[in-house]
Amino acid sequence: MAKFQSLLALLALVPVLVRAQQTVWGQCGGIGWTGATTCASGSVCTEQNAYYSQCLPSSAVPSSAPPTTAPTTAPPTKTSPTTTSPTNSAPSSTATPAPGNPFTGFEWYLSPYYASEVSAAAAQMTGSAAQQAASVANIPTFIWFDQVAKVPQLSTYLADASAQQTSTGQKLIVPIVVYDLPDRDCAAAASNGEFTIQDNGQANYENYIDQIAAAVAQYPDVRVVAIIEPDSLANLVTNLSVAECSAAETTYKTCITYALQQLAAVGVYMYMDAGHAGWLGWPANLSPAAELFAQMYVAGGSSPFIRGLATNVANYNALVAATPDPITQGNPNYDEQLYINALAPMLQQQGFSAQFVVEQARSGVQNIRQQWGDWCNVKGAGFGTQPTTNTGNSLIDAIVWVKPGGESDGTSNTSAARYDYHCGLSDADQPSPEAGTWFQEYFQTLVSQANPPIPA
Ligand SMILES: *[C@@H]1O[C@H](CO)[C@@H](O)[C@H](O)[C@H]1NC(C)=O
Ligand SMILES: *[C@@H]1O[C@H](CO)[C@@H](O)[C@H](O)[C@H]1NC(C)=O
């Protein structure tokens, strides 16, 4: 709570501190913004989303083509650019990780953007439900970087976290999701990635990673934890029969290797996405999955910053199911803990002593799906166990909220270009808006069905 108050205090102070012009990287607009709306010379006020416009250096303002250079104020750390062989371009890591659980002793940095979405949502509600809804803004949620144009916000958040640390003395961790592979979502009915392999995808991705690494390097006092590329490696384990996935295999591996190496070099603690129990937890998938993750760990330089794996991202599985959901029938690993306990020894055999983080943001209510593979805005879901390092399992560093609860998984509009049939299934809440946009009714259900309940 104190943390949230300090955030509010900071947000309240900003308009007072800014004069007529906002400085580079500062906020310059968005719903509820009352500060300066013009930017210092050499920068341009650029809308990132309805709640947030930011003064970007003129050279970094995204045009219709993806930017090919890092922002001028972010010092590039890479000395020998290459587009063919990331293993040769890895900077030698100067950072050394602290031993043990990277979350211990740290508080979470709260995403101001998610807080603004939640506040706007709570303002549409009444009574105790509105109070509970508002307090969701105090619960830490990962920040997704699913477009290169969003990366400049990372500098803003890191600067904010650094300032909060200085004023409170409490160390903060900024949780991010790295999610911008070329030909992303290779097995999805409607992929929504911005980069394609055909159109310079690998180089664009490396530029995206370079910008993240440059931002992190500017704030060495702030700890960053990253989940690396949801669904991508899991697709390479089970979905190579899909033409888009087999065509993307080499590029995915090259790009993820690049991300692991560059982010390890600036001290980011990383968890590669490992699907969930209903995907890689099937006995036949465990061993090929362990092999691939261990291979990526080695390709990433076996860095201790490659802490382990993330499971259940944006999914609905229980960490520990009271009884198996009938849809899990046939899989002895019917919850995330069983999956992790089965996978970890196989990883260890391959030299990868992986630790885990497990998403529980929307896992509060179980037995609500018709098929285990259903993932789109599943009806009746409630917020689950709140983030904690008290996980009851020494393999699990933290229970986390990765999916910003209330943001839609995809549209149910069958005429939309990005329509995926999963969002039209009978267990998907409808009508639903486009992926990533706010879904008020869904958020209200997550709050009312939360288990444990959200404190008012
Ligand atoms: C991807 O793999 C999962 C798990 O085996 C499977 O359920 C799904 O149908 C596959 N997707 C496609 C498009 O084949
Ligand atoms: C569904 O998508 C189509 C195509 O983009 C659009 O014209 C239509 O207005 C959308 N319908 C709804 C209800 O949003």
Automatic annotation (TrEMBL):
It holds the Pfam family CBM_1. Gene3D superfamilies: 1, 4-beta cellobiohydrolase. Residues 20-56 form the CBM1 domain. The active site is at residues 185, 231, 409. Residues 62-99 are annotated as: Disordered. PANTHER family: 1,4-BETA-D-GLUCAN CELLOBIOHYDROLASE C-RELATED, PTHR34876. This is Glucanase.
